[in-house]
């Protein structure tokens, strides 16, 4: 399989911007490996920042199948890529094809960023880091002072749990649906090896959610429920929330999910997944390019893009 066989996936407006981009022999290319990618605002956000900062770089979405992942990763440098982002469904698989893992990914083996360091491909995870930064910077939360209910235990959820534990969180409860329990147990056992007794896991039911909401004040939704085009869905009844809850969503398309909208109506403090997306992308840019990205610009520009697509 050749890298050029990976299919670019982007909106028509992005395709036009790619064609208009004047690449040079010095242009740094960064990929995004995943499927599907048509909903991702990452290429628009990354390329907008490159242009704003005058950086000669281009971020390209590469949609591929699972059996194409290994050869694509192996050939990234041969096709002049300087690094890559990784999204669903490859975050829990790509570590097998890398030369090493940074601490942010080593504890969980969940990778969303590939960095080339001295000829080696190193996996990082900026999802968890980005989420924690969004809590600290946007909501001014002191991480150790809260209890966290994490709904969903996939790659993003596990990365968030690990990042919270690294920042001093002492009580994280993760609930997942029955069919995902074995996989979730495997992922969270990796976190537990490094942060014993911080994370517990249980089966997600209406009763278990209601019970957990009595004890935990920060509610983190980390599943695909409510993502465009199914924006009218919620994982649980928001009527169970009350004003003491802080509700954060990892879904960022739409920027304000039905869960966040109804939580806010009940007096909860809320945090859009678009902030997590902006902070994790900024961490990627620091790793790849050593720059300090403009977070507020990244958030507002991404929101503008989603509105232009009718997905905000």
From TrEMBL:
Where are the active-site residues found? Answer: 91
Highest taxon listed in the record's lineage:
Bacteria
GO BP terms in the entry: amino acid biosynthetic process; aromatic amino acid family biosynthetic process; chorismate biosynthetic process; shikimate metabolic process
Which Gene3D superfamilies has this protein been placed in? Answer: Leucine Dehydrogenase, chain A, domain 1 (3.40.50.10860), NAD(P)-binding Rossmann-like Domain (3.40.50.720)
Q: Which residues make up the binding site for NADP(+)?
A: 103, 152-156, 250, 273
CDD domains in alphabetical order: NAD_bind_Shikimate_DH
> Under which EC number(s) is this enzyme classified?
1.1.1.25
Which positions does UniProt annotate for shikimate binding?
87, 112, 127, 252, 280
Subunit relationships:
Homodimer.
Recorded family membership: Belongs to the shikimate dehydrogenase family.
Name by which UniProt lists this protein: Shikimate dehydrogenase (NADP(+))
Which organism is the protein's source?
Answer: Synergistes jonesii
């Amino acid at each position: 399989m050749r890298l050029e066989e990976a299919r670019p996936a982007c909106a028509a407006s992005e395709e036009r911007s790619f064609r208009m981009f004047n690449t040079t022999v010095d242009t740094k290319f960064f990929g995004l490996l995943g499927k599907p990618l048509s909903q991702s605002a990452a290429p628009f956000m990354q390329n907008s920042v490159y242009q704003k900062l005058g950086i000669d770089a281009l971020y390209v979405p590469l949609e591929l199948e699972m059996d194409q992942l290994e050869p694509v990763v192996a050939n990234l440098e041969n096709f002049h890529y300087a690094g890559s982002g990784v999204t669903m469904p490859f975050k829990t698989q790509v570590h097998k094809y890398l030369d090493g893992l940074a601490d942010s990914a080593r504890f969980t083996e969940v990778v969303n960023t590939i960095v080339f360091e001295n000829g080696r491909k190193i996996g990082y995870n900026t999802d968890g880091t980005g989420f924690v930064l969004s809590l600290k910077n946007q909501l001014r939360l002191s991480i150790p002072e809260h209890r966290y209910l994490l709904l969903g235990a996939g790659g993003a959820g596990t990365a968030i749990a690990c990042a919270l534990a690294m920042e001093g969180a002492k009580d994280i409860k993760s609930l997942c649906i029955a069919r995902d329990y074995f996989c979730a147990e495997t992922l969270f056992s990796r976190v537990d090896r490094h942060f014993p007794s911080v994370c517990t896991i249980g089966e997600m039911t209406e009763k278990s959610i209601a019970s957990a909401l009595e004890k935990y004040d920060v509610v983190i939704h980390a599943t695909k429920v409510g993502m465009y085009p199914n924006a009218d869905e919620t994982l649980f009844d928001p009527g169970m929330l009350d004003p003491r809850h802080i509700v954060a969503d990892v879904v960022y398309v739409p920027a304000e999910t039905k869960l966040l909208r109804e939580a806010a109506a009940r007096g909860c403090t809320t945090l859009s997944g678009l902030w997590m997306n902006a902070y994790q992308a900024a961490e990627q840019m620091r790793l790849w390019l050593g720059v300090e990205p403009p977070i507020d610009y990244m958030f507002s520009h991404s929101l503008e893009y989603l509105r232009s697509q009718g997905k905000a």
